[in-house]
Amino acid sequence: MRHTKHVTKAVAALGAILASGCLELPRFPSVDGVTADVVTAADADADAVSADTTAEDASPDTVETVTPGWSIRQLGTNELVVCLVTDDDEVWCWGHNRDAHLLSPASDTLHTPTRLTLPPIDELFMGSGRHICARTHETPARLLCWGANLTGQAGGAPIGALVHEPITVPLDADQVVDIAIGGSSTCAVSKDATVACWGLRLNGQRFDGTDVTASPEPIPGVTGDEGYVGVCAGSAHGCVWSEREVRCFGEYYDAEPVDIALPEARVQSVTCGNSFSCARVADDGGEDRLFCWGWNLVGQVGLAPADAHYGPNELAPDFFDGGVDAVIASWRHACVVDGSRQVRCWGLSNQGVTGRPVNTASPLPFPVDGASDAALFHTSVHTGCVVTAEEGEVRCWGSNAFGMLGTGEADALPHLEAVRIALPPR
Length: 426
Hints:
mainly beta; five-stranded antiparallel beta sheet; 5% helix
């Protein structure tokens, strides 16, 4: 299937939005070595991936893999490691242990998946931050965090030290419905719709790493009356959402949370990156729509790169076959899984994380080669991974400097095409 007509319409829509202007906020430093892709409709058409069918169902609860004994229900990545959660509550990770992600004091690199010594895990929480949290599959459940704790984001003292043994965060984990891992913060929303964060204070006025806490604190102006069901955290900001409302707080927002001006629609998810955010919504007709807002230095909002902030910008639906099933905003890029189960990314290709040449920037979503048929999906600073639906393969792309592609060795080359991870026998 070719998409020249669709992409031409999308580029025209993008140009119209850009022509409407933007709101200038304080200047950001330039990014050395970044070049802007000159993207045309023909380029996008040449890179488009054929898709004959559209997935009708959401991702399955678990994915049976081609390796006997493996059934995966969750996938996560961050700057240094990739992790899987199996259907029998085990956590397997690989990558670099610089920040104690692998629960060892040594700075070893694991080039192949290795089981972590943890209690049974119900859900794992990972993001662009240098720490990991997990909810245990116990009665009562516990919320555990470990890794970097420079700002108290792992939830314990001493602030500044690596956490090699998981800390139990003082929250009722059975009441927590969502956890967000930010660059220097962690946030949680509970069943009563209250929101608490720890680490870098996202409700503060200093974002230089000095205004910190290791204990969960409520966000002023965010109460349970609004019925919040989800939270995300970025480098120094966060957002909460209910079915009909998104509010953001932190750096470049006012002291009180700010309502994000999205169209009347049902909010399905919100994701926070480095000073930008994206929301997936469904209009009253059930059609998927995707909006991004914030800093757009490398096109991460979906507009031509500019050192400025923008309000919500809708990414043209014609870029996505069958709508958008999932979206993740990361450091300076974002990726979706569209209705055909194809991963498409835009923004800065840090070590090839968008599947485009290294350090190029594009506001247009392009398919990542080899990242199709995605049932599970995650991306972070410079790596992305999927678990495929039919074959049950784990595939990753981007940086392999820390062995995150699980190939058995590390290398300094960017990998623009997803490669299969060899899982060990179980």
